[in-house]
């Protein structure tokens, strides 16, 4: 297994991690920003006001994107297992 193969596997792993985390992180970012804007306008500084809507939005994002996320990670795992013989043989 040469360094190019290691870098390729690492790059694919980082890309799949970014793709899988994007729906949840973007949802939390957008909801957090909206709640922060609402808090700054109304000057209500309640901790649960920012936590509860974010938790609900992230749960909804996982419900919506969950099937796609599972199919992506299963596809990635199949590709990695299919690459094992070529990585062990060096070609």
Characteristic key phrases:
91 residues; mainly alpha; elongated; transmembrane; cell projection
Strand portion: under 5%
| Element-level helix/strand string | HH
Number of strands: 0
Distance between the termini: 8 Å
Alpha-carbon Rg, integer:
20 Å
| Biggest sheet record | none
Summary of the model, kept short:
It is built from 2 helices and no strands. It has 91 residues and is mostly helical.
List the helices and strands and how they pair.
Layout: H1 3-42, H2 47-89
Please explain how this structure is put together:
- It comes from Mycetocola miduiensis.
- Pfam families: Bac_export_3.
- This protein is mainly alpha-helical and 91 residues long.
- The chain has one domain.
- 91% of the residues lie in helices and 0% in strands.
- Helix 1 packs antiparallel against helix 2 (47-89).
- The radius of gyration is 20 Å and the shape is elongated.
- The model has no long low-confidence stretch (mean pLDDT 91).
